[in-house]
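Before the break, one more example. Copy the sequence into your notebook; we will annotate it together after we see the structure.
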Amino acid sequence: MDLATPISQVPKIGSIYAKRLKRLKISSLEDLVYHFPFRYETWGERRKISEIALGETVATAGSVWQIRNIRTRFRKNLTLATINDGEASIEAVWFNQPFLTKTIKVGIRLGLAGKVDLFSHKPTFINPEYEILDKDSRRSLHTRGFVPIYPETARLSSKWIRTRIRQFLPTLLPKIEEILPADTLTRNQLISRRTSIWQIHFPTTEKQIKEARSRLAFDELLITHLQALERRQAWQRTQKGIKMTAHQEEILGLIASLPFNLTEAQRRVLKEILSDFSKDKPMNRLLQGDVGSGKTIVAAIVAYEVFLNGYQSALMAPTEILAIQHFNTIRATLEPYGVKVAMKTSSIKRKEPFDILVGTHALISQAADFENLALVVIDEQHRFGVEQRGALRGKGAAPHVLTMTATPIPRSLALTFYGDLDISILDELPAGRKLVKTYVVPPEKRAGAYQFIRKHIGQGRQAFIICPLIDPSETLASAKAAKSEYKRLREEVFPELSLGLLHGRMKSKEKEEVLTDFRDKKLPILVATPVVEVGIDVPNATIMMVEAAERFGLASLHQLRGRVGRSTEQSYCLLFTESPSKNVSARLSALQKYHVGLQLAETDLKMRGPGEIFGTAQSGFPTFKIASLTDLPLIQETRAEARHLFSEIGLKHLPVLKAAVEKQKLIPPD
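Here is what the structure looks like once it is written out:
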């Protein structure tokens, strides 16, 4: 047998267990070896029966003096056993496992581990773990020391998995190759790969578990970094970019004509992008900018540079609302300079010639033809699939690519998962903007909040009220739905005001009519789902009220908050929750404390892990068996080591590591 042996061909497994293992994505012996425990039962060393106290969780061993099945008057099946270690006896009871009498026989030596409580007025092991011991009881696998607990599936227990791994691992371990060079192990104080695999399955100390997890997590993160470096190298090798001539005077003239001053962050990012244009390699850059930080105007300015060089640009947004917003901004900025800006969505068909085409996924259809596409801008890039993004890039001959996101990803994580991209960060808000005052509002202050909204509307301002659902849900009864809440607010709370309703199921024309009325101040209140999270710019709106705020990640709440505070007027964000959870309270309170997306992302990372940060983007990120995205120091260490191995040595000189990089099935974010 070797690591590649199909699991169905392994003795004592067979076809039935092979089908069950397939549900755990185990199809070979190698998959079984790399099926790691996610926690450990800690039974400790065995104790004499005479030393066991009531209420303890403990391990012991002894001979079976008696075992029998009984049926209680309440028709429950009990298996009762008496265990003696030569000095004292103790009872054990199992519920609804009458088959145990066929396995556990009088006279055999039995290991037990579990909690001891009173049963029939006597200290008794209640449903303990058990195993039959041979003469050398030190070779215990299930009832002593650290016992690994694995991801399981129906009719496949950790005990079964543990037994099989212990059976095969001694034979397979010598066949596992070390993937890291010796100096990498020394420099990072790592144990060998073989040792780590043995210790992750069968540790004898906490230290061994820590050493094993550190080594295996190091491997996963290192390989992820190396994959990103390979993608970057492949991009640069296979693509010859469009080198552009700088038009500094014209660009400075455009910037000077803007009705506002660019922030220093915007000027820095523009310099980075325009520098990329001067090279003969295609740009592949991620622009991460907070809500309202001015990403669109940056895209407009660099698209103007492309126009001055005689080429076309494309900007793809995930929703029609956001695409229209970009179109209006870019057209107002560039049309006075002779730039033809056109729009294409599923409901808006382009016919006129263009220099810049703004749209949704409709840009990748066959009907969207480009004569000389040189710049692709993809906004909220995580909302598009790899194929969609690739299809748009394919509309030109190696165009420069600028991906933009307002989803705040901590820099260390961005460097891990977008290691093949250059990263620019807009970390400043435009001058004159005031911080949005944010409050977590308890249910008893709801009436006061409505009065607060009414007061500001009386002063000529407008408000958003956000609900997590479109229609009511029986399973989420506490979460308000936009349709029913719109009706209640219009009839009971604000009968004297005009309210608008906006949600994702409305037709494009209906959405645009509602948004136009809201922008034109005909609707003082807009009740909506999170469809307004991106792409709506109404400077007169100064209140954002969010229902069931606990159902949103901090990143989403921060983006919703970014829909207000877009003028020099003071704005407010009111977060409502009926959850009594302290964790919910602490998480929402972070929005009161932090106003920068990156700070909130770091907070979410520490409090809840990476899932909440990435939201819908999560499916585009790798799933690790051991590594954690919250281990920022290890992320930095492995990134530095990956760069050293890739640049200083080269993967072609490290064939075992190169094979591991090609083999590890992680989904790249592209």
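The first strand starts at residue 39 and ends at 44. Residues 49 and 88 are 6 Å apart (CA to CA). Try to locate both features in your own notes.
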